[in-house]
Amino acid sequence: MTTSISEKWNRIYTTATEFPPPARVLSENDYLLPASGLALDLACGLGGNALYLAEKGLQVQAWDISQVAIDKVRKKSQQLGLRNLEARIMNAESLDWRQWQFDVIIVSRFLVRSLCPMIAAAVKPGGLLFYQTFVREKIAEVGPSNPDYLLKENELLHLFPELIVRVYREEGRVGDPSRGLRNEAYLVGQKPLCS
Ligand SMILES: C[S@@+](CC[C@H](N)C(=O)[O-])C[C@H]1O[C@@H](n2cnc3c(N)ncnc32)[C@H](O)[C@@H]1O
Fold it and tell me: Best mutation site among 4, 6, 7, 9 for ligand 1, i.e. most ligand atoms within 8 A of its Cβ?
């Protein structure tokens, strides 16, 4: 199972030449970031979020199951002189989450619901989770078609009950579909200082 997932993504990333921009949940809310600290870009792909966070001066872990993606992130961060970014091949479903605590976690376009409690637990008190992924109520054929990998209405709002919701966007098909945030929902949550 793990092999077939990594093989699938390795094939996709072998031909990829463009490095993606950061997810909107990060670029539109980056004023919420701390000035320093340890950040994780989980299921980072080609590392659009990780590179953005490293350029902002955070210490960054970029984790993905795909060796090809991680090799490309390593090469790109070296080219950019970002010594504060470490890219690692990691399977989010088999790693020991208890060893890790982050000031910031970003997850974009990756949804394994069973991981949500571990992700929330890995956010330090006062730390932030940025999460953005595809919804079932899409207006375009983007992202996965399997509904298991798509958020139900308001699902993201309730996926991390341990966190205080600081920002939430989910616009469905309401109003002018050429504007706004479509096909995806996003959340910025904060771990309470005392829980
Ligand atoms: C749709 S891509 C999103 C990549 C990136 N976060 C972005 O927004 O551009 C999904 C990513 O999840 C990674 N992935 C899938 N299963 C994984 C797992 N169990 N552990 C870590 N990464 C995984 C894939 O290799 C792929 O890079």
Answer: 9
Can you tell me the distance from the alpha carbon of 76 to that of 97, in angstroms, rounded to the nearest whole number? 27
For a substitution probing ligand 1, which of 13, 65, 95, 96 has the most ligand atoms within 8 Å of its CB? Answer: 65
Q: Which residues pair with 133 in a beta bridge?
A: 185
State the residue range of the domain holding 49: 2-190
Q: What are the pLDDT digits (tens) for 45-80? A: 999 999 999 999 999 999 999 999 999 999 999 999
d(C-alpha 160, C-alpha 77), whole Å: 31
Query: Is 195 inside any structural domain?
Result: no
Which CATH number do you get for residue 67?
Answer: 3.40.50.150
C-beta separation of 74 from 87 below 8 A: yes
Look at residue 137 and tell me if it is in a domain.
yes
Q: Which helix (H) or strand (E) holds 40?
A: strand 38-42
**Span 36-46, pLDDT tens digits:** 999 999 999 99
Burial class (CB in 10 A: 0-12, 13-18, 19+), 171: middle
Report the alpha-carbon distance of residue 69 to residue 47 in Å, rounded. 8
Domain assignment of residue 34, yes or no? yes
CA of 64 to the centre of ligand 1 (A): 6
The count of structural domains within the chain is 1
